[in-house]
Amino acid sequence: MMTRPLLMRNIAFPVALAATVLALVLAGCAREKSPSPEEASLAYLAQNDGYWKAWVSDVDGEGARLLTKDELDVSRISWFPGGRELLVNFQDGRLFRVDVASGERTVIQTQMPGIQDAVISPDGKRIAFSYGVNESTYDNDVWMLDMASGEHAKLTSTPGLQHDPAWSADGEWLYFLSGMGGQFHDIWRLKLSDRSMEQVTVNELYHFDLSLRDDGTIAYSGNRNGNYDLWLRHPGGESEALTNDVALDARPAWSADGRSLIFESTREGGLDLWKLDIDTRQIARLTKTPDGARMPVVAVHGANE
């Protein structure tokens, strides 16, 4: 009878020790602000020392961390499959593959100076981009770079400006914007298997900032109602306005579950990131930066890794 309390004390001590160790581990995790690759679901551009630089954070904008520190503007970013690396396109046209955890980067060799709008494919094997052979910003075409071979392929040969490519989720279609500099800037798509093209919108004023959901729904910024608001283009062809605000709403990016959009907006003065729930239409602010944040992109963790 006297041995039972001693046995209970012997059991209680390691249990208490384990609980203490677990509490310390959890406290350390709570103090850690910089996201790990698994947590770095959101990347975006924000001003730092007068330049637009790449940042990473969790999906709600918490724990933001500076990723690029060059004294040069970043013009475009996109996630490699798995959410561990970013494709970074600098304003001078250079391309880098940047590890989110370490910040280490690898240059992507290309023989084409001045590449813009670079976005990685869902399988991580191809890069679509916009490129012009002369100095005019209204004479660009859409191209593709094969990561393994280094070969470039010109996908469009259309007069005017062809730019801002966006991949379908299956990588079989490439959507892009096309305009001649007038009052219309429409959405087109190109089937990569046979290079056939389809015009998705016709003379519906300006469209910008395409983002494709897995089911083919297109989110974009458009001015059909007079202001630049967020819109959806459903697979059946119907268009639907999501916002109606005098401020700029632009650069929508689908969440990993496809139920919300993260976008840039000036609805409270400065340019910052916001989140829109598609079902409820509730909008919440994610960032409050001193000099602006824009161009959000969301990682899909583990996809096609």
UniProtKB/TrEMBL annotation:
InterPro entries the UniProt entry points to: 6-blade_b-propeller_TolB-like (IPR011042), WD40 (IPR011659)
Domain of life according to the entry: Bacteria
Transmembrane parts of this sequence: none
SUPFAM superfamilies associated with the record: DPP6 N-terminal domain-like
Family: Belongs to the TolB family.
The protein's name in its UniProt record: Uncharacterized protein
